Amino acid sequence: MPMPGSSPHSSTQIPHHPATKHPATDVPKEPDEPSGPVVWVTGSGAKRVGRVVARLFAKHGYRIALHARSSLDELQSAREEFSQLGAPCMTTTGDIRSYEAMQQATDSIRAAFGQLDAMVHCAAVWDWKPLEETCQEDPQTQFEINTLGAYNVAKAAGLAMVDQPTGGRLVLVGDWAVARPYRDFSAYFVGKGAIETLVRSMAVELASRNPNVHVNGILPGPVMLDPSVSAQRAEKILQSSLVKRHGRPEDVAQAAYFLATQSFITGVCLPVDGGRTIYAPNETESVAHPTFKPD
Questions:
Q1: Cα–Cα distance between 202 and 214 in angstroms, integer?
Q2: Partners of 170 in the beta sheet?
Q3: Residue 168, strand partner residues
Q4: 159: domain range?
Q5: Which of 150, 151, 211, 215, by CA, is between 20 and 30 Å from 193?
Q6: What pTM was computed for the model?
C-alpha cells in the first residue's frame, strides 16, 4: 500500500469539537500550558493509516494520544515527529483484547491531558486464507482483535466521555467489503462485520447516558497499497472504483475528522471506498492484500 500521498484539503475549516476538562482535573490552566481538544488514535504507532489520522487532527489543533501494542520503536518515533510539529503528544500501549489495558490507557490520557474528546480506532489485523485451510483459531483471532478489541476500546473511551459534560466522539474503522465480501477472507469478514453493529449499539448505549457522546464508523476501501503490489494489480484495483483513483490514508483521516466534529450525526457508517460498495467489475478486483493471488 503506497505511503501517504498528498491530498487536497477543503479551505473551509470545520469548527473543533469543544474541549472539555474532566471534573477531577478541572483546575485553571497556566497561560503557557497546552490546551485544545484531545484525540486518541489506536494503531497509530506504525507508519500506516492511524498515523496519518493523528497527523491531520494535530494540524487542526488537537493534542494527540498515540497507541501501539507491538511497534513500540515506531511509536516513540511517531511521538518525536509530533513533538517536532509542535503538537502536544503522549503515547499509550496495551493489547486491545484486554479491557483493563484499554481502561488504563484512557485513564492515562485523562491524567495527562485532563480530557478525551475524540477517539479513532484504527488498530486491526487483516489476514486471508482459503476456506478449506481455515481452522477454528483463524476466526477466533480475527474476532478477538477486530471485534472484541474494538468493543474494548469503544467502551473504555466512551464511558470516559460519558463523564464529561460535552461528551465526545468515537469513530470506528470497519471495511467496505463486509457488504460485498470476496472469497478467501471469511475469518476476517466475521471479525470486521461486527463493526457496523457495534457502532449502532454503542451509539445507543452511550447517548442514553450522555447525549453528547456520538459514535460513528468509517468503511474504507483500499487506501494504502503495499509496495509489493505489482503495477498491473494496482491498476486493476484502481479500475475497480467508480472514481478511478487509488484511495489514500488522507481520505480516511478527513472522514474521521469530519465525523469527530459533527453534533447531529451518530450511529452511521460512512463508506470511504471510491464507490466500491455499489460497483465492482469483479468480486476480487478490489482485493489489495499484498499476498493475495486471485485467479
A1: 9
A2: 119, 215
A3: 213
A4: 35-222+250-272
A5: 211
A6: 0.84
